[in-house]
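call fold(seq) -> tokens
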Amino acid sequence: QVQLVESGGGLVQPGQSLRLSCAASGFTFSSRAMSWYRQAPGKERELVATIGSDGIYIKYYIDAVKGRFTISRDNAKNTVYLQMNSLKPEDTAVYYCTKRVGGSYLHPVDYWGQGTQVTVSS
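ret:
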């Protein structure tokens, strides 16, 4: 069955970096677009970034993370990453890896990982 297992979250100080990983299994990873979402305490879940199946199409949906976050994927390792630099307290959230039903950002999400907590605090 489909599994999405996130790792790499933790507690960091403002300005530091984290790299989230999402190990995928149970489907043809190289033909699916992948996205990262986040949900901060008391706020709605928001879409952070999407990467197409070929790794060429990339979109960031939150202006505040543009230039600081980088989504990437390694189809040989069935893994998608979210590199987060210059972290701010407002980046504190649970981050979720998601799979889309096709290779494009236009396809809906059909599976979610369990989430990994990112806390940015001094």
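The radius of gyration is 13 Å.
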